[in-house]
TIR domain-containing protein
Amino acid sequence: MTLGIYGDDDRRPYFFLSYARSRFRPDDGTDPDRWVTKLFNDLCHDVGIVTGMPTPGFMDRQIPAGTQWPDHLAEALASCRVFLALLSPAYFTSEYCGKEWAAFLGRVKSQQAGLDRPLAIIPALWTRLGPSELPPDLKSMQYIPPGFPSQYAAEGFYGIMKLGRYREQYKQAVLQLARLVKETAEQADLATGPISDFDALGNAFADYRGGERGRRPIKLTVAAHRLDKLPPGRDTYYYGRTMPEWTPYRSADYTTPIARYAEQVVAELGHEPVVDSLDEPTADPDASPTVLIVDPWVSRDPTIGEELRRIDEEPVNVLVPYNADDRQTADAEKDLNRTVDAVLSRSLVLPGSVKSISSKEAFRAALPKAVGEAINRYFKEAPVHPPEIEPTMARPSLELPEK
């Protein structure tokens, strides 16, 4: 992966500051998050000194006006060495913070599976938090590290910044945090790596806060041949007794069915994967966003082809795996593409739909985008049943979502 806006490895941000923006808007027009900005600037100064690196940290306020905000944010999450979460009650109700956490955690898991390294996530207290205010997964994390002043544990950064008598303790806490950032980055040794599409990510804290759009079920419908219904002469090597057992990327070293692999990816995105099959559907077709995973050979089957045409009347996101090492598929690629195009003409032109996906790595890269597009379309098109409102009630006003 290229380092994009950060140019080379030396310019990668040492830390990514994840924080919840204040919902309070002062009448005098002052910036309600100015204290977070001060902490960021002070920490950047100390991190820059202890590391000697030119890009100590990243905060979303650094994004220039008029640039692509999601791209800039994703680049920073993909490049930073450490994820610094500034914890407050608002942090766990912020959709953006939950997605930032999920994005970075997915990057860490993809690189450090089986390795004995620190998680590269540092929770820091912005305000005082009791154990009951933390999600279960965070209670085991060390959010009051050794060496920090006791006033930090009692008040958080905001408290010791606001109270003048704790000025020296604030300086000590910032310096200790800078040292912790450097130490964690060196021990984790996290390489730059891709993160999942932001639109596809669930909120890492949705279960804790009861969020509706966190672990939303994502239906993964597999349309593939079964061993007992293969067309004459088709190689049995890639198929199983059921559609979800289809393993298009099977090799001597890899035997994971595509449905199971997709389950893993969707779970990492923070959603609840639900595997279904075209011949034996178990889920309500309208109950959740859907991604259709299609064996190109089934497009030639009259019965399955007709069912795919029916689905295509209300198009869904489609992914069509293709293995170049499967000689039969490689030889028939052009004809298979024509038949797939014929039965899924509407679905294949949707953003996020992809055919001829040549490897499991390419499939992993394509699936988050397909999930994100499926979620977006679901929320736009799913039937809405608003509650009845008494005529005497004032019309509710809507506000833009806050971070």
Remarks:
- The beta strands are 15-18, 57-58, 82-87, 121-125, 217-223, 272-277, 290-294, 317-321, 354-357.
- DSSP finds eleven helices and nine strands in the chain.
- The mean pLDDT is 84.
